[in-house]
């Protein structure tokens, strides 16, 4: 298989003449089929369902002044009436934080069912309804990232929690039920299968090469932009068209080890990527996910666990082949995405 560091040089082939290729990503531990003949040129990709303008409904509970309409608050920044961001409980949580005393009681002898204990929180990123995350300056986005970190550290005190997922759904077709800019944090008593598969894949790569595959993911062909502490890339075996990863340059296993300086730096490159995606792809709905290590990752796993932030613009749906096989078809090569995204001008 072609190494991530040495992708094939396709020498300016047109989309019509590029050959399909299968790539296995050691990070997601899955095969992806690149089939450019199924698509148009990389520069022609646009959102089929651009985000609608963000009109304020008659009563949005996330707006400043309506705090009493929300689920209980966990904390706000700053801690006064003129807040910039709030972390609250989810009014309709997928898991219950009130079941911890029962969480050690297994539902069956085969461990196939356990009590639904966990946390499901919402981070309201701005007091104003018209503001999107990409409108906020890097320091303000850094504050949001530090709020994630603080909440993760709080939740990690609960011994029953094994994995914490931070994610953002932007736009209705990306799963957002509220148009006011927000993200979510879910804490689970189990390690999800995608996370376990990622650990298996990165372990195999480490045992084969002696290197962390995410430390190795910074090949020039795939790099979009970089900051002092982070690099953004179109991943070697991207599952989705125009998928972008933001990776710490230094090896780091846990997102919640992020410090204030790096949070602002990450805020800057995250803002840049969201703006470039919006401009190049006609402001598509998107998801981002922070892929960090399980809380109870062992010392021996640290050399090959490396956190990163994944941005997925919603450009195409998932069909029966993907659902049935777990193998995805991507119509655009990531090195072409990286070239297009490097050239996006925001001036």
Q: What does this 3D model show about the protein?
A:
Residues 1-12 have low confidence and may be disordered. Helix content is 20%, strand content 20%. It starts with 20 loop residues before the first strand and ends in a 5-residue tail after the last helix. The chain is built from 5 helices and 13 strands. The strands form 2 sheets. The chain has a 10-stranded antiparallel sheet. A 3-stranded mixed sheet has the order 1-2-13. Helix 1 crosses helix 3. The protein has helices at residues 138-155, 193-209, 260-280, 320-325, 334-342; strands at 21-25, 30-34, 73-77, 85-89, 119-124, 163-170, 182-188, 223-226, 230-233, 244-248, 286-291, 308-313, 328-330. The protein is globular. The protein has 347 residues and is α+β, with helices and mostly antiparallel strands.
């Amino acid at each position: 298989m072609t190494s991530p560091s040495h992708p094939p040089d396709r020498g300016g082939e047109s989309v019509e003449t590029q050959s399909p290729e299968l790539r296995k990503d050691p990070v997601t531990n899955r095969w992806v089929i690149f089939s450019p003949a199924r698509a148009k040129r990389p520069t022609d990709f646009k959102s089929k369902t651009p985000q609608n303008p963000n009109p304020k409904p008659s009563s949005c509970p996330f707006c400043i002044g309506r705090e009493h309409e929300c689920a209980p608050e966990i904390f706000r920044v700053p801690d006064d009436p003129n807040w910039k961001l709030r972390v609250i409980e989810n009014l309709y949580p997928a898991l219950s934080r009130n079941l911890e005393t029962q969480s050690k009681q297994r539902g069956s002898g085969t461990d196939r069912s356990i009590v639904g204990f966990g946390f499901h929180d919402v981070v309201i990123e701005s007091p104003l309804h018209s503001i999107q995350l990409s409108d906020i300056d890097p320091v303000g986005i850094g504050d949001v990232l530090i709020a994630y970190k603080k909440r993760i550290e709080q939740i990690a005190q609960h011994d029953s929690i094994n994995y914490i997922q931070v994610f953002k759904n932007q736009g209705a077709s990306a799963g957002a039920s509220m148009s006011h800019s927000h993200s979510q944090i879910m804490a689970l008593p189990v390690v999800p299968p995608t996370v376990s598969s990622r650990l298996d894949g990165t372990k195999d790569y480490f045992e084969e090469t002696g290197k962390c595959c995410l430390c190795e993911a910074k090949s020039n062909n795939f790099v979009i932009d970089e900051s002092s502490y982070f690099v953004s890339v179109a991943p070697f075996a991207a599952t989705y068209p125009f998928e972008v990863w933001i990776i710490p340059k230094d090896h780091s296993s846990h997102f919640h080890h992020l410090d204030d300086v790096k949070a602002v730096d990450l805020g800057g490159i995250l803002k840049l990527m969201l703006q470039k995606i919006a401009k190049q792809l006609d402001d598509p709905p998107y998801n981002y996910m922070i892929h960090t290590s399980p809380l109870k990752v062992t010392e021996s796993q640290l050399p090959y666990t490396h956190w990163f932030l994944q941005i997925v613009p919603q450009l195409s749906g998932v069909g029966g082949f993907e659902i049935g096989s777990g193998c995805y078809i991507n119509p655009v090569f990531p090195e072409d995405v990286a070239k297009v995204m490097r050239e996006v001008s925001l001036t």
